[in-house]
Amino acid sequence: MREAQFIRKNKDRWQQMKENPSQHPDETAEEFIQLVEDLGYSKTFYPSSGIIKYLNTEAAKRYLHIYANQRQRTSRVSRFFKYDLPLVIGKHHVLLLVSFVTFLVFITIGFFSAAKDQGFVRQILGDGYVNMTERNIERGAPFGVYASGNEFLSFVYLFLNNIGVALRGFAGGILLGIPTILMLVHNGIMVGAFEYLFYSKGLMQDSLLTIMIHGTIELGMVVVAGAAGLVLAKSWLFPGTSRRVDALKQGAKEGLIIALANLPMLMIAAFFEGFVTRHADMSVWLKLLIIGCSLAIMIGYFVVYPIMLKKR
Asked: Any stretches that span the bilayer, and where are they (predicted)?
């Protein structure tokens, strides 16, 4: 598009914004986003144009109105989790779906691979773990592994370990997303083989009801970590109209924001695994309540709420 055509196309809208600037915070933010987008376009295609200075000035006015003069009713941390994070997640819902489908596919592959090959479970989980689990099953405590050790130390260890997995999933995006995909593949196959071990012993239902007490959030966070890495990889591989380095910076920022969502969730998952899952003999209804609430939180915050927020 020629510069003159670009100006004619947007002139009336710019004039309207200048003469009648909105006083509503949300509308002001929308004007700011539009002006920044126009500014970025003009800098890319008309780098020596005088329209750049005009757009920069108008955008700066709205920036000051939003961030300098507006009273902040919530803290930055509260705003991050209430608005910034859900909006970024909503922007990348497609990649979140890709991560989820990939993870689910390899859980299925792991399960049926274990069914076809009797040695597959030991190959994936290790002889030591399988032997320990079989001994626990024989003595009537199939989930005894979760009852061992100190609750608090288990919580700390699990939290740090889960953070490591999540950060590796995000960081793998810089290497074209290959380590991120491998993380989803490895964890998916491991979960599938793990569930087949209990299925083969007639304990599939008990396994799901017990392990998903912490696993609902923990496995969901594996998917989120995968999405964070894919966001980073996508910005590097498919920069669109932006310069590759600028797209990478934006992708790294947004991927990191998504990765940060893992921290409080992984803390909750580690708390459940360290303090709650060990009580495998608790009521079925209590287990279902915990799992249901965890699932509602995951779907509500990472799927439904971002959609509602974008519409608002």
From this structure: 94-115, 178-199, 211-233, 254-272, 284-308
pLDDT digits (tens, 9 = 90+) for 108-151: 999 999 999 989 999 999 999 999 999 999 888 888 888 777 88
Task: Say whether both 167 and 26 belong to one domain.
Answer: no
For residues 104 and 241, membership in a common domain is answered with yes
- Least Cα distance to 31 among 18, 49, 12, 45 occurs for 18
pTM of structure: 0.73
Residue 77 inside a domain? The answer is no
- For the segment 156-182, the average pLDDT, to the nearest whole number, is 89
The verdict on 86 and 145 lying in the same domain is: yes
Q: How many domains does the chain have?
A: 2
In this structure, what token pair is assigned to residue 248? 């990478």
Are 30 and 165 within one domain? no
> What confidence score (pLDDT) does residue 11 get?
75
What pLDDT is attached to residue 65?
67
Contacts of 206 (CB under 8 A, 6+ apart): 142, 143, 198, 280
Domain that holds residue 126: 82-311
- If asked whether residues 174 and 34 sit together in one domain, one would say no
Question: Is 73 a residue whose pLDDT tops 60?
Answer: no
For range 38-43, the mean pLDDT: 72
